[in-house]
Amino acid sequence: MNAGRSVSATYAVDPTLFTPVQFHARALLGYSVNGICAWFIKHLGVSIAQQVSEHCQSMVVVGCEIDYIRPFDFFEVDEFTAILEKVRVRQSSSLLEFFHVFTAGGHEFARVVTRWKIVRLEGDAALSAVSGNMSVSLLKRFKSVELDSLPIQRILPLKVVEIETVGQLYVQGSYNQTLHRHQCEVADQWAFHELTALTAQMRERVVLSASSSEYPMGEILGRPIKQITMELSCPVFLFEEMLLETNVYLLEAQWVFLHRIYNLDRAKALAATVIESF
Predict the structure, then answer these.
(1) What is the mean pLDDT of the chain?
(2) Which residue of 65, 200, 223, 267 is most buried, as measured by CB atoms within 10 A?
(3) What are the C-alpha distances in Å from 270 to residues 121, 145, 151, 179, 190?
(4) Which of 105, 110, 68 is nearest to 85 (CA)?
(5) Last residue of some domain: 118, 146, 174?
(6) Whether 111 and 172 share a structural domain
(7) Is the pTM higher than 0.90?
(8) Sites in the chain below the pLDDT cut of 70
(9) In total, how many domains does the chain have?
């Protein structure tokens, strides 16, 4: 039977996974990454570390969408399940797409899609890499149903255009921040799930500084996020300086936060764009 392959794991609910209003986005992405690592071990017989050491390849995140399906709070159930439903090899084996679903009490509460670009390692201790394609020896281990020749439909650029042309701009804010090691992964560059923490910090900072009778945005801090969309376009490495910019819009009676993060140590290159919709 030529069916797609999945992995799942059930975890205990603990208070660090939640804000007062919802499951942490950063936790969703963390469990998503763990599911990807488990999928490679179970279905391809290779760990991420072995991909690096034996196949001279790795993966870097270039895009992600988080959709919160329903409210889910700390007191609802004792356990939740993270499922990696399916994997797709895209764009001439240069990109992998992973589809995740999170359930509690038998019902979905969030869905996550992550996209990872394949990079070929150059062999140095710093794990320097260039864009590449899936190793032929690993590509042979995928099932035909997991090979998808259709082009990727980028969601974020269309959303940005709609927000900036149709939405009403309310307030703006910006500040600088240095990337520290607790925000990094093994190659001393930012761990992508930390983006959700950075943007949450940006959002709260802008709301607290700008909320007033004219801009009554304080209520946002008590609302759950409905959707997060992000693209990553440039790495940020340990101790590099970032410029974080946030624009707050009202779009069709919905608050939308458009965040852009620039790497100031790389000629102010755009490192990431994140949209939070409430």
Answers:
(1) 93
(2) 200
(3) 23, 35, 24, 15, 14
(4) 110
(5) 146
(6) no
(7) yes
(8) 1-3, 123-128, 211-216
(9) 2
